[in-house]
Amino acid sequence: MVLILNKITMSTIYEPMGRAREYSPLALNYFKGCDHGCRYCYVPIMLCRYNSKYQHDTVVPPVTFNKIEESARKTKGCNKQILLSFTGDPYCNAEKTETRTVLEILNRYNHKVSILTKDPEKALKDLDVIKSFGKRIKIGATLTFNNEKDSKIWETGSPTPESRINGLKIFAENGIKTWASFEPVIIPEQSVDLLKRISMFIDHVKIGKLNNYKGIDKAIDWSKFIFNSVTVCRERNIPFYIKKDLARHNNGVYLSENELDQDYFNL
Fold first, then answer.
1. What does the buried/exposed string (b/e) look like for 65-92 if buried means 16 or more CB atoms within 10 Å of the residue's CB?
2. What is the pLDDT of residues 118-153, one digit of tens each?
3. Cα–Cα distances in Å, from 82 out to 13, 21, 71, 87?
4. Coil, helix or strand at residue 112
5. How far apart are CA 3 and CA 51, in angstroms?
6. DSSP 3-state assignment of 152?
7. pTM for this prediction
8. What is the DSSP string of 20-53?
9. Is CATH 3.20.20.70 the right assignment for the domain spanning 18-260?
């Protein structure tokens, strides 16, 4: 995913642009950097355009809770979903209580929130706050590989695939809406397998592809992946959205208007 913003904002609710807009109409960033060490991460390339000395593997939480509260107050009543977040994982290894405080602020002003993390098990520490949102919140995880070996090669500091699946399952058992992001897709067969494994408890999925990474994406039959992933979703009744970059490779699979609507799953 490539992130394009009018300007890089921290601690302020803003409208993302470009491919990022497919995830949410609004977003909030409050971490700089991430310690998950994903080889495919787009953030270092994007932020280095603004600061050549930027080091993504060093997590700096420039959290100004007063600024977040001011922004949350100004946007109260907007009735638009806010994603946490694009420039860092809200439950990265370095996170302590920052995300809990951010959630408390957003809940105070009745905002709708979508969480995207690679560590939903860690997010369980905030289950009470998340539950207090009622139907105004959902939690999702990025799913890439179906085994720990491949994951540790590509995502050295990230929780295992089993941990991510287990975390989402526990949230679902607690009545929290869950979703999964399949982007990037690096080994399509593994992504299809993951779709099957989460089908019993996931509320929806967003499916994309790998973009412009060392030629790997050029060797993948994306049309076949669309067919296989859509087949699984329909057979197992998983609501899905096919991202624009992937949809361009569609060759004959019928996709409804909703399945191509970037706002279909917004709260």
1. eeebbebbeebeeeebbbbbbbbbbbbb
2. 999 999 999 999 999 999 999 999 999 999 999 999
3. 8, 11, 12, 14
4. strand
5. 15
6. helix
7. 0.92
8. GGGT-SEE----B--SS-BTT-SHHHHHHTT-TT
9. yes
